[in-house]
Fold this protein.
Amino acid sequence: MRRLAQTALLALVGAGLLHTALFTDLYLRYVKEGLRPVLIASGVVLLLLGAVNACLDLRGNGEPHDSHDHPEGPAHGHDHSTAPKVAWLLAVPALSLLLYAPPALGAYTAAHSNGKPVATSPRERFPALPATSPLPLTLTGFTQRVQQDPTLAIRGRQVQLTGFVTPAGPGGGWYLTRIIFTCCAADSQTVKVRVHGPDAPPANTWLAVTGTWHPAGRLGTKTAEAALDVRETHPIAQPVNAFTDDLPLTPS
């Protein structure tokens, strides 16, 4: 790979990062929102490196070359200024950022991962639930109330959860799911709530689901299943920042 090609590749990767992070929300498919400044800075640095590389290349081409300075050059047998042609594969992810962004994580990933372990919440972290009905909860918040709340406040309460559909596998049924980024897609975790009631919509369909806890196990303990008897489902648009476990959205 000649110097000019190296310069072009640096510029291409930098432009791809800037396009994704500065002018679109596509970066949220791969990293958390807080990393946007880092991506923008990285894109700028790569473009600057490409520009410096180009300037050095032009300057080098303008200087006279004395073959006596490198007596071994012609007889050495190969040129160290080149890199393996496979290095051009580095252009593929850069072009994908500019022309076709890879799809976001979804039901396939969730179906092949274990559910996210829910952090233990001491008693004082369970305030009284508001009287709102249905009660908006995150999937994590619902699971914590089902498995850890000694007041059993979730019993009989109608709740509203949002997420996307993940088929449950050979046994049938489906889960309402969220994939949560700790930092980026590489360290993502999955939280699922088993759904009882309607047939499974197509995988990756985003829904607002209303229902009550499905009795399975002992409420307030780890034996309780994070499951819902569903009364209503409403399709919703996928949120822009889909890889968090935010409160339910208003159904569209």
